[in-house]
Amino acid sequence: xxxxxxxxxxxxxxxxxESLDGFENEESDFHLVPPRGPSTKIITKESLLAAQKEDLRxxxxxxxxxxxxxxxxxxxxxxxxxRLLAVFVEKGKSYLFTEAGVTVVEQLDIDxxxxxxxxxxxxxxxxxxxxxxxxxxxxxxxxCNDCWTEHFIVKINEGQSRRIRCMAHKCNAICDExxxxxxxxxxxxxxxxxxxxxxxxxxxxxxxxxxxxxxTPHCGNAIRIEEDECCEIECSCGLQFCFSxxxxxxxxxSCLMWELWSxxxxxESETVNWITVHTKPCPKCHKPVEKNGGCNLVSCICGQSFxxxxxxxxxxxxxxxxxxxxxxxxxxxxxxxNLERAKRDLYRYMHYHIRYKAHTDSFKLESKLKETIxxxxxxxxxxxxxxxxxxxxxxxxxxxxxxxxxxxYSYPFAFYxxxxxxxxxxxxxxxxxxKQNLFEDQQQQLESNVEKLSKFLEEPFDQYTDEKVMExxxxxxxxxxxxxxxxKKM
Length: 490
Fold this sequence. Notes:
Strand order of the largest sheet: 1-7-6
Low-confidence stretches: 1-37, 107-111
Distance between the termini: 8 Å
Strand content: 5-15%
Number of helices: 13
């Protein structure tokens, strides 16, 4: 974590020409992938088959395999070609095949067709059938087509299309997909189509480096990453999401932090204000208690009585004017007790939640202003002016939304990073205080510059003179660069 030298104003008015030139040369498209993001590939419905066949081709060529054997290996190793090849090099072909359920019996007349004149007894139905009505798999086991077909139908309906095993006892061999497709299509064409769809979708469902875009309604795209699977990416439909947990982008929060925060907000945020105003925590069980009468001696459902004025535990005896043996009118310095700790935890959560909610609301409102701001760009482009390039507005909007979002999620990050829930024993009190101060300094700098950037973008620049527009342009470019850098630092 880095500290920033200089004051806020020095940061704001810095005139770094190199950074400005680099910013102006960026694309003006609104849906830009964040700088230094992971290497990603968007897979559309049309390109899904081609992407799958490319990986199949690599394995088939390198290991001299038929397609269904290559698919079986890739499904077992979750379509990770590099891992598959690493296992092959380290442990050999035999181990690779055995682990994945690929069984190839060599030096056996598997490929020689069975004649109709020959008769074979099926070990499943115990019927004698002619040679042209039976099928032998690569593992060498041979059964009648009717038994194979029923076996395949059951497995497809059970959702096991990707790895249908041989019917023979203790045989782990995976059946040839071409045989499955051929036999099932004769009896249930619709089920054969379902089988093909499952095989195609396995490239995404079984691949840890590829996931469906979580857009609603679904855009039909999948995203493949080439490097770290814990990253935030953007689909071509415009949706930005976390690849690891498929939730909305939540940096600087980790996935665990965001999961805990979402649950905490869902459980507490709607009632926290009412609880604060209308209840007080029981000094014994710490549950919130509401006073429903005029007497200041209240009782919790756990049986504990306490004084409504100070929250201190008391007995049950009292007169119309006072609680027996209890007086809280005199001010006393008292050490931290359970009541104060509960109140402190509640107020701490409220501090972070209020600010998180405020920036989230600002993000939603600014998103609605996008069309208004772009309309001002259209008006400015149509009028006679020497300023023709307004790409700085699009870039400024993108930086504003991204910075606002990071700023919003920085509060749940701080709540867990500097609290007792996750990292209590990993930092000393002095280290925690130092890191918290550094983080909050960066947070305040980002907050200040984000508000300034928002203010300049909302200016009615379509009504200003060229000189005034140039001033706003320089401010927006400068602030966009600063907020972008601050987001990376955080």
